[in-house]
Amino acid sequence: MEPRELAAWAHATFGHGTLDLAESLVVFDDSYDTLDYLEQTREEVDAEVRAEARRILGPDRLP
Prior knowledge:
By secondary structure, the chain is an all-alpha fold. The protein has helices at 3-14, 20-33, 42-57.
């Protein structure tokens, strides 16, 4: 799953304010939607989503 897809899934599944563990991914989905107005690039947001996914899963659950 691509980072953008993961963020969009979290937003559609959990929305804002329903699951603390997913909240940062939900916010990243908003970031993708507003990239034209941010100083971040898509690649930077992708990297942050990947890092957050690793944090959520923990080091023992990733290859």
